[in-house]
Amino acid sequence: MRERKIILLIIIVISLCTVAFGCKRKARLYGVTTWNAGCAGANLSLWDDMGLAWYNEVTNTAHSGAYAQDGQTIDGNIVDSLFTDTNAVNWGNDHNNIDIADAALIFMHGSESNDRWQGSVRVDEAGAGDCQTWQGDMRFGNTNLKFLHISSCNSMDDNQWADRWWESFSGLHQVNGFHGFMWIGSDLISDYEDFASDAFTATIADAWLDNMYRPDISGTDDQCPVAYAVGANSDDTWNRIGTERYNNVLSNPTSVGYWGTVYLENCDPANEDTIGTGID
Which CATH architecture has domain 25-263? Predict the structure, then answer.
């Protein structure tokens, strides 16, 4: 009987391995560069370099509070269920995948469907995804995820803000994405590294906007980053946007009573109107 009690005590101690006990927060990376496994998409070989620049820097031990590398899935079996939740669809499996991380970045082709972002996955699995993962099926943070970054076109269009993106927050603190098209290129790789580095000393929202904004990136069109957060009320929301860094993580929102965004006024991208004109 005494031996069984000792074993139980050991299990309890192990289960208390949290940040407060010296354990690192976790980072994960998911994305597609080559669509050759059943789902269609233009191949873009530099996209993983951009994602890996973030992943390697957020886990760089030179930063106080650096995250632990908890897995990267590039190409391979990128399917819809990795990003969808059982509270939205019965085949969701994010609780075994992206929602385990504290911070995660997704890169894949993106578009808009019913005023929601959808991303192009690589493998068409059984279910209703049909080679797409859809924000309406996402509920993040009820396992663990705090910060989600989406390197994908139309991932944070202004018409999605009021009636759409807040529904995916179930403990999640912030999503960072793009209004209109975003771009892939060798000269953008360092932007992702710099974003991850800056987000330890500046707020995640400011670091995202400062590093991802590119005026006239395609001649006349801008690249327009957006930071989106929720809170129990206005004060809670703006406090989160104005204080949360990778190494300054607040407790989960007690409820979603308010949402807020930070963006660059008059940013005018390809594939969307000037930012702010589509807010309901």
Answer: 3-Layer(aba) Sandwich (3.40)
C-alpha span between 63 and 197 (Å, rounded): 8
Residue bearing tokens 């504290």? 102
Asked if 233 and 194 touch (Cβ cutoff 8 Å), the reply is: no
Query: Residues 213, 188: contact at Cβ < 8 Å?
Result: no
- Do 124 and 131 contact (CB within 8 A), yes or no? yes
Q: Is 127 helix (H, G, I), strand (E, B) or coil?
A: coil
Q: Give 156-191 pLDDT, tens digit per residue.
A: 999 999 989 999 999 999 999 999 999 999 999 999
Domain ranges of the chain: 25-263
Q: What is the pLDDT of residues 29-46, one digit of tens each?
A: 999 999 999 999 999 999
pLDDT single digits (tens) 117-143:
999 999 999 766 689 999 999 999 999
Round to whole Å and give the CA distance between 244 and 259: 15
pLDDT band per the 50, 70, 90 thresholds, residue 279? confident
- Start-to-end CA distance of the chain, whole Å, equals 64
Residues facing 197 on adjacent strands: none
At 275, give phi and psi (nearest 5°): -60, 140
Q: Kindly state the tokens that stand for 251.
A: 């407790």
Least Cα distance to 18 among 62, 61, 68 occurs for 68
Of residues 16 and 212, which shows the higher confidence score?
Answer: 212
Helices (H) and strands (E) counted in the chain, each on its own, are 5, 10
Q: What DSSP string runs through 217-266?
A: TTSSPBBEEEEEEEESSHHHHHHHHHH-BTTB-PPPPS---EEEEEE-TT
For 33, residues 6+ apart whose C-beta sits below 8 A from its C-beta are: 43, 44, 45, 46, 47, 48, 74, 75
